[in-house]
Every structure is written in C-alpha cells, then in structure tokens.
Amino acid sequence: MRMSSETASQSASAEGSAWWAILAMMLGVASLIAAELLPVSMLTQIARELSISTGLAGQMISITALTAMITGLVLPARIKGVDRRYLILAFSALLVVSCLVTAAAPSFLILLAARIILGVAIGGFWAILTAVTMQLVPAHRVASAFSIIFSGVSLALVVAAPLGSYLGGLFGWRVVFLGVAAIACVVLALQWFTIPSVHREAEQHGDGMGRLLSRPGVTLAFLAMLLSFMGNQMVYIYLRPYMESFLGFGIEQISLSWVLFGIASFLGATFTGVLAERMLKQILIGIPVTMVVVSGLLLAGPRLAWLVFSLIACWGFFGAVLPIIWSTWITRALPDNADSAGGLYAAALQVAAMLGALVSGALIDHSGIASNLEVTGAVMVATVLMTLVSLRRRRID
Length: 397
What we know:
The chain is mainly α. It has 2 domains: about 180 residues, MFS general substrate transporter like domains (Growth Hormone, Chain: A); about 190 residues, MFS general substrate transporter like domains (Growth Hormone, Chain: A), CATH 1.20.1250.20. It has 14 helices and no strands. Helix 1 runs antiparallel to helix 7, helix 6 packs across helix 11 and helix 13 packs antiparallel against helix 14. The two termini are about 35 Å apart.
C-alpha cells in the first residue's frame, strides 16, 4: 500500500514538472513570435535610422519567414538522436543573440543577419514542438498542452505590436529589442530548470518527409493545413485596411476591434484543448466552414453595424484554434513520425504567411478589400473539401 502511494506521488510530481516545462515552452513561443512581429510596429523608425526605405525595412519580416520555412524542412533529418532539451535551449539562446545583434546593428545587412538567426530559432522550435509535447504529457492531455503553448502566440499578438510601438516611441527601437533579449534570458533560465531530457524514442519508423507525404491522406491533410493557415493570414494581415477603408472605422473603433480580436484569440488558444480531445474531426471541419461564413459576413460589414466587432473577434478566435487543431491532428494521425511532421508543419506556417501576404496584397491593390474576402472564402472552401477527403483516407481516433 505504501509502495502504491509512493508511486502515485512520484507520478503526480512528474506530471506537475511536465506542466512547468509546457509553461516554459509557451513563454518561449511568446518570445519568438514577439521578436518576429516587433518590426511591424517600428518599421518607419528602423528605416529612418538606417537610411533605407520602409519597403526595404519590411524585408526583415520576409527573410525571417523564409529562413524559418527552410529550417523547418531541413532540420528534422539532421537532428536524429539529439536530446530535444538541448535543442530548445539552443533555439532560445539564438533568440537572445538575434535580439542583441538587432539592437546593436550598425547597418541593414547586419540587421538581416540577425533576422536570419531568428528565423533559424523559430523554424527549429516549431519543427520539434509537437514531438517534444507528445513526450512530456500523457496522450490524452496533448491537446490541452497545445492550448497552453499556443496561448503564447495569442499573448505575443496582443502585446508585441502595441507595446513595441509605444515603447519604441519613448525609448527607441533598439531599446525595445534589448528588452526582448532580457525577457528571453529569463525564459531560457526557466527552460533550463524545467525541461527534462527528451530523446526521439517516441518515433518508431522515422520516415523522411517524402515517404511521410506518400502515406494515404497525408499530402491532402498538409495542403488543407497550408490553405487554412493561408486563409487566416489573408484576413489577419489586412484587417486594419479593412477596418479603415471598408468599414470607415476611426482610431477608437480600430483599437476596440484589436482588443476584442486579441481577447478572442487568447480564449480560442486557451480552451480549445478540452474540446479537441473529444471532437477533433468535427472541429477540423467546423472551423474552416465557420470561417467561410464569417468571411462572407465581413463582406457585408458596413451594413451590419456593431455585429462587425463580433465578426472580427470570431476571426481572432478561430485563427487561434487552427494551429492547435492541426498540431493535435499530427499527434493522432502521425504519432510515429512527429519530427518530420513537425518540420512540415513549421514550413506550412511560414509558407502560408508569405503566400497570404502576397495573394492578399495583389488582390487588394488590383480589386479592393472585397475581392480579398471573396478569395479567402474560396480558400476555406477548398480547405474543407481537402480535409474531408484526407480524413476518409487516413482515419484518426
């Protein structure tokens, strides 16, 4: 009886330690995304100080996304046998280095080098995130763990741009990046003390990405994943122009919309895990279906008065749910190859961000905001169809 009690106590202690590790990973995600997004709110300051155009300064974001995509695709095949704990610590250390180099950068080329370092950290972290989470918590708690981790993305979305803009105006953009470096150091210390040794024992087959994509339904699932992320980005990136030119919002209404969007994103990331554990298939289909409806209603925005605030909040909620749901799908559909699947997932996130910005920018420049919403709806319809076929070809529990 005593042995049973001691075993239960040790098990509870181990599970408690695992959740501290999940919290440390959530803060790591928040720090990485905040560093990635900060230039958006300080582009004009950076461009002015480095004597470059605002458009050229914007390539800071593009080069980070491109590097993260390449890292996500290349890394999994080259880290077999490496303790994931040390990889997480290395990526967090790269974040610190990137922010310090950014803060001290005397030229745009040095600044780009710093952003490439950040891209490696982001792509690498995303690539191993799923596999590490699967080994830290029991299978039935993985979706809940993802909810906690991805709430870091929502936290960064809510805090990074407005706080960066405010502090950048007061102290300058270099000081803001020094501040992020200091926060990243604290996160690195927390990860050092909480994240245990995590080896690749969970993967039984370890197929490469090519063989992984040849499995029934997997290619379609990743295309659906890519399209869902892309459709979300197509609206998110151009929400402010939508609010200003399509809805005619003033600064107070825009600020309220962003607050509601941020709160909804946080709620979506926080509470999705509980439902995902029970209704994964239904949510995989239901989210893009709902986003088709919301994008259609956003087209009628000027005639919907105060309802449009709710629609913007809905987009924030469902956009936050998407990465959690697809990460959970990987753990259910590809539990034996989470590293390669995680690399594809990381690449899908970055490709979606780049394609979303490219397609939306072209549509808005040539046909206006309305065309962007129409195409977004069509992208989400394609997502639904691909997801349905994929689920029929590759069943999940």
